[in-house]
Amino acid sequence: RERAGLFDVSHMGQVEIAGANALDAVQRISCNDADKLQVGQAQYSGLLSPQGTFIDDLLVYRLGPQHFMLVINASHIEKDVEAIQQGIAPCGDAVAVNVSSRYALLALQGPRALEILQPLTGVDLAAMKYYWFAHGEVAGVRATVSRTGYTGEDGFEIFVPPQYADKVWLALMDAGAPHGLIPCGLGARDTLRLEAAMSLHGNDIDETTTPVEAGLNWIVGWKKDGFIGSDVLRQQKADGPARKLVGFEMIDRGIARQGYGIYAGGEAVGTVTSGTQTPYLKKAIGLGYVAAAKAAHGTELEIDIRGRRLKAVVVPTPFYKRTK
C-alpha cells in the first residue's frame, strides 16, 4: 500500500485463442465485449455456464486482431480449457490451446512499482494505461508487461518464460531494495484483494452465482448478442436479482469467515463468502450474499461466529481505494 510487493503467481493458467474467427469465439465464451479491445489492451471478464454462472473469472488480452490470451485461475485450468474448447466449437476457424507451461507470472504491485521496474525494461511504463500491456524485455529476458493486478494498487504483471523466472525475480528484488520492496505470499494477496473488494472465484463467485448477483454488471457486454448465458443474465437484470453480494464491516469484535451465516432481525438472510481482519484498515471486513432487501448500505446484520450472533453493518465497497 505504501511501497511495493512482489508476488509469484505462476500458478495462474493461460489459454491462447487464434484463427480467422478468434474474435467470434472469444465473444461467445466471454461475457464482456472483446470487440471493444484494441490490440495491446486487456479486460476483466467471466467464463459462464449456460445458466449464466461463473465457471471462472478471467482476463482477456488482445494480442492481435484475431489472437487472444485468456488468463484463468490455477485450480480450474483443465475444466476451463474443456469449457472454452466446447464453447468455441461452433465458431469455425478458432483454436484454443493451453499455453500455461510457457509462462511464469510475477506481479509487482504497489505505488513504487513503476520506479522499480522502469530501469529494468525499455517498455515506457508511464505511458502504459491501466489494463494495457506491451511486449519487450525485463532484465534482459523477453517478457510481456501488463498494467494489471489483484491488489487494488497500481502495479504490473510480468509474463516471462519459466526458465528465466528466477533471474527476473532476483533482478526485481535487487532493483526494489532501495524502495522497500518485499516478497509477498498468497495470504497477503488475499487480504489485499479483499480490501479492494475484488471477487475470488470459489468464494465470492462460483458456479452458483451470476455477474448480476455479484455486482459485476460492468463486465457484461449487454449490447452484444449470443454469448453463453446471456439470456439468463438479461432476464435476471430485468427482474432484479433475489440476492446481492455486499461488503460488511464488523461492529462487534470477531472475524467472519467463508460459510458463516448472515442474519437480520433474527432471520437467516445470507452467507459470508470472504472475511478477514485487515491490518492496514485495522478492522474486520467481509463479503457475502444477502437477500436483496437487506443489501442497502447501513443495513444492520448479524454474523453467526461459532454460535454467537455478532453485529455487522453493510458498507460501500471497495473497503480500500487508492488515491493515486
Provide the fold topology.
Layout: E1 5-8, E2 13-18, H1 22-29, E3 42-48, E4 54-64, E5 67-72, H2 77-88, E6 95-98, E7 104-109, H3 113-117, E8 133-138, E9 141-146, E10 155-160, H4 165-176, E11 182-184, H5 186-195, H6 230-239, E12 243-250, E13 261-264, E14 267-278, E15 283-291, E16 300-305, E17 308-315
Total discrete domains: 2
Q: What is the SS-derived class?
A: alpha+beta
Overall pLDDT confidence: 97
Biggest beta sheet summary:
6 strands, mixed
Count of helical stretches: 6
Q: Tell me the radius of gyration.
A: 20 Å
Low-confidence stretches: none
3D structure, described in words:
By secondary structure, this protein is an alpha+beta fold. The protein folds into two domains: 241 residues, 2-Layer Sandwich (Gyrase A, domain 2), CATH 3.30.1360; 83 residues, Aminomethyltransferase beta-barrel domains (Elongation Factor Tu (Ef-tu), domain 3, Beta Barrel). Helix content is 18%, strand content 35%. The chain has a six-stranded mixed beta sheet. The chain starts with a strand and ends in a 9-residue tail after the last strand. The mean pLDDT is 97.
